[in-house]
Amino acid sequence: MPDAPLSSPRSQLFRRITDRRDEVAALTQALVRIPTINPPGDAYTPCAELIGDRLANRGFAVSYIRAEGTPGDSDRYPRINVVARIESGRPGPTVHFNSHIDVVEAGQGWTRDPWAGEIDDGKVWGRGTCDMKGGLAASIIAVEAILDSGLPWTGAIEISGTVDEESGGFGGVAYLAAKGFFSKPRVDHVIIPEPLNPDRVCLGHRGVWWAEIETKGRIAHGSMPFLGVSAIRHMGAVLDALDRDLQPVLDARRTAMPVVPEGARASTLNCNSVHGGQPEGFDGLPSPCVADSCRLVIDRRFLIEEPFERVRGEVVEILERLRLSRPHFAYSIRDVMTVHPVMTAPDAPVVQALDAEIAAVFGRASTHIASPGTYDQKHIARIGHLHDCVAYGPGILELAHQPDEWVGIDDMVASAQVMAAATLRLQGCGV
Fold this sequence. Notes:
Number of domains: 2
CATH class of the largest domain: Alpha Beta
Strand order of the largest sheet: 1-2-6-3-7-15
CATH architecture of the largest domain: 3-Layer(aba) Sandwich
Number of strands: 16
CATH superfamily of the largest domain: Zn peptidases
Structural class: alpha/beta
Shape: elongated
C-alpha cells in the first residue's frame, strides 16, 4: 500500500482493519466449521444465525427469510437467508455485500480436515474458505471498521448471507430479488465477494445452458438385440456427432469479454452425465435387456456474442440430422436451466470505486475480468434489474471446489480495506 499520513482518515481506517487480522481469520474459521453442504442444504440455519447474531449486536436490523417452495426447500433443509441492514441516518445510497453461505461437498484428496478451519502458513484451510466464506468474513470486518471509525458515512449498508448459489441460487438471491431485496430504491450498489483475486474486479460471466437429451429405443431380449433398438447406441451417435461436428466450431469462437482463464474465452461444451439401461445404483446381476432409454445432461457455456437461439439450435440441428439419417432414431430434449451472460459496464460507479481503492491498497491498477461460470450477479441483473453489481473478493479462483482449499489471511485484510474504502467512496464520503 502506498504511504499515507499516519493520521489521515484512510490510514486510520486501514490500520483498524489490519489490527483485526486475527479476527477476520477467526470469523472465517467459525463459518467454515458449519458445514453448509449443498446439496442437500445442510446447516443453513445455524450459519445464517451466526451472521445475524453478530450483526444484530452491531446495531443491524436482521431478517431471516425462508425461500419456501424453491427447489430443495423442506422442513428438514429449509432455505434460510439472512439480510442485515444498518442506516446512517443521513441521505445517501445503499451499498450491499452479498455472499453465499453454501459450499460443495468436500470430496476426496484432502490432506487436512475440510471442516476444521485450520490456520497454517498465513492461510485458513477448509471447504468454503475461498468460495466464499473468506470473502463474507472480509466484508463483515470492512463494514464493522467503518462503523467503529467515526467517519461520517451516509445512506445504508446491507450484508446478506444467501443460499443455494452452488445449485443456481434459486432459493437465495433469485428468491430475494423477486421480493425486491436487490432493486432500487432499496439498494444502489452490490458487491459480491467471490474469490477472484483481491486486485481484480469481475464484471460478469458467461452464459450457461443445461439440457437433458434422451434417446429412445425399444426393449428386447439381450440375446436377440436385433429385435430391439438400443438407446445407448443412439446416444453413442449423439456423442460422436457433438465431438466431431460441434466441438471444433465452439473451439474456434472467442469472446471480447475478459474471461479467465484463457481457455474459457472460447465456447465450451461438457457432458455432465450419461444414464441408460440398467438403473443407477443396481448392484445385482444385469437383466438381459436392450436399453430403451438413455439420457445425457449437457453443460453448454456460451459467450455474450452468441444468441441463445443459435446455442440451442446447433444441438437440435445435430439431433434432427441423426433423426433423418439413422434408422429408428428418436429423441427428446428438455431445457434444465438457462442463464444469459451478464457484464457490468467498466465505467459503472461500483467498478470505478473498486478500481480506485485497489490502486490505493496495492499500488497498481486493478484488472477487469469475467468469470467462466455463473454466480448470483445473474439474478441481481435479470430479476432485480440492478446493474451496478460486480464480484470482488479475496481468494484464488482456481482453488474453488478443490481439495485443500484455502484463503490467505493477508488477502482478506487487503480486500476488507478495499471494500471499506470503496463503500465510503460510493456514498460520497471518500477517505
